[in-house]
Amino acid sequence: MKKLVALAAMLAMALTVSACGSNGGGSGNDGGNSGTDAAKTLIVYQNKAEVTTPMQDYAEKWGADNGVKVVVKTCTGSCDYGAAMKADINAGETPDIFVIEGITGYNLYKDIMEPMDGEAWVDQTQYEFVQDGKVYGYPVAVEGYGLAYNAEILEKAGVDPKTLTNLPAYEEAFAKIDSMKDELGLTAVVSLVSAEGSTWVLGNHNFAGYLSSGLAYDDTSVTDMALKGEVDAARLSTYADWVELLFNYTDKKMLTVSSNDEQMAEFGAGKYAFLHQGTWADQPVLEAGGTFKMGFAPHAPLGAEETNGLFAGAPSWYCLNKDSANLDLAKKFLNDLCFNEDGQKMMTEEVGLVSAFENNPYRPTGPLSSALADWIEQGGIAYSFTNQYSLPDGFNMNTLGPIYGQFALGNIDKATFIQMFADAIATLGK
């Protein structure tokens, strides 16, 4: 990708115009859609639950206008996108358009990917996925997360979210809110899950706190250490303190057996002060009645050291199957998604995503996406959204995820969590 210089400024540029939302497994090129049926059908495979219905509606209309049936397949939540992609590829049913999440996804599917240099949409974004000097990915959206909060609850509790920039500040705030649970009508302070099927919440997004918090956007030093099987011991220790704090203030049912959907719905119902999710939670939070003012505070994995940034960027990209029988139509689908008003509105106003394209004049209305947009427009600091996706496929969710789960269940103590975490990372260097 183009070097991410002054990320906040670039995002603000796109949002100012508006003012006037798991990697896969398997690879190969044996397949691609072929035959009569393939010539009539364009398959779009995506991994965002909130995109599913709006994309299906858009695709139906676009397909009718372009003489092709568009099938939108979705794999999200407990669905294993990688396994599903591998099965499709092995069956010779590779989607025409599919999703990757960073370099790991690229390495898995590079043999079947069609370069998109020269496509019209490329000139409208700073977030295209580039590898070896060629454009391979169309950015789905700009996404972001911190620790989402219910501003009304924090106000009633007398907690200023602007002060939540380090671990001691969170310790004080969590303790205060916890002491007022009955008065505030709360089940617990934090809404967080770690059970099987939701391991991405911690394995991907919380783990980014260890890899990226407090670092410049393009600083991959901690990630590079991990890839060599090394850990920053002091950083890992304070990170474990942060994980422990979140676990201590989440009720055990939510933490250990509840689903990702329940996590977001309960926050939307006003049962928790904080939500460990990002902008993609807008729709389920709103559906649960979450009409209150919301915002994001930074994660605090560095102990007393200040962290004052949110995780933001383009975490996923649409890619093309080079063996598609409908390659030209697939290219047109993405260009129209960028340039046509219906496509622009669908991804922003309907899905609620922050557009990665400067020509899109529309702004998301969802409370968390709006909060991210406000943060960016006000020059807020951004930490890397994608460092965690540089690790081998499945490592975050399948290797680290169960370690978080054991810690959440109370089966291991913090010292054991740290050791198991370090041992897991050590395997990356072998």
Question: Helix share of residues?
Answer: 40-55%
Going by helix content, strand content and strand pairing, the class is alpha/beta
| Unreliable runs | 1-36
Percent in strands: 5-15%
Give the N-terminus to C-terminus distance in angstroms. Answer: 29 Å
Provide the CATH architecture of the largest domain. 3-Layer(aba) Sandwich
How many helices in DSSP terms?
A: 19
User: What is the count of β-strands?
Assistant: 13
What name does the CATH topology of the largest domain carry?
D-Maltodextrin-Binding Protein, domain 2
> How can the largest sheet be summarized?
4 strands, antiparallel
Entry keywords:
430 residues; alpha/beta; D-Maltodextrin-Binding Protein, domain 2; 2 domains; four-stranded antiparallel β-sheet; four-stranded mixed β-sheet; 13 strands; globular; disordered N terminus
Q: Concise description?
A:
This protein is an alpha/beta fold. The chain contains 19 helices and 13 strands. The strands form 4 sheets. It has a 4-stranded antiparallel beta sheet with strand order 3-12-5-4, with helices on both faces. Strands 8-9-7-10 form a 4-stranded mixed beta sheet.
Task: Report on this structure.
The protein starts with 6 loop residues before the first helix and ends with a helix. Helix content is 45%, strand content 13%. The chain has 19 helices and 13 strands. It is an alpha/beta fold and 430 residues long. Helix 18 packs antiparallel against helix 19 (414-426).
